[in-house]
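Support case: manganese (II) ion complex. Customer-provided input:
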Amino acid sequence: MATLFISDLHLEPARPEIGEQFLAFLAGPARTADALYILGDLFEAWIGDDDPNPYYAQMRSAIRELSDSGVPVFFMHGNRDFMIGQQFAAEAGVTLLDDPHPLELHGENLLLSHGDALCTDDVEYQQVRAMTRNPDWQAMMLSKTFEERIAFAVQAREQSLARGESMTDDIADVNQGAVEQVLRDSGADILLHGHTHRPAVHPFHVDDRPVHRIVLGDWYEQGSMVEWDEDGPRLEELPR
Ligand code: MN
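Agent response - structure generated as follows:
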């Protein structure tokens, strides 16, 4: 039995092939897992748990079926679905995790993160992140009507494009100093994150201590997963 980690599916109705692979994953390999951790950007966008789009309801109930089958499912916010709230968590049967989240697994000390907080070179993004993760800002946003929130999301997207940012390129990589600091502060041996869409395993040292940074890939062309059992972690591609 293994614990599974995924991130950066960027599910949206316009990319049905990703959703189909995710549904097959939930009904297939995930069913025999010890637990499933979704480390952010499960959805391309999220403007409130009250979104009536049936696509989201379909994904939510498929996750619910997995958790109802006895596999614990954990969810951490990404930079695109950070508005996911307790209503979604209750309906999908998932437990929301703070970022970062420490986890002991098969005798190893892990630190789980989406990864965007570690991209400290992107100063402008970190300012936006600080604003949008503020509970007051989120309460203000959720007090708007659904239509107003859609208009806001479209406007934010246009502003982002006007700054020259594109959907898949231009994601800043993590800052090595920030990575070393969270590993130092947490004492973790392994940092596992997504967000950068640069799947890899990086061994290095923090204060002479051997550590690893494992990066999950996105699901744009194929799936990506870390499978972790008593033999340790394996970063795997899931062909479509
Ligand atoms: Mn991300």
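The longest strand covers residues 200-206.

Case will auto-close in a few days if no follow-up is received.
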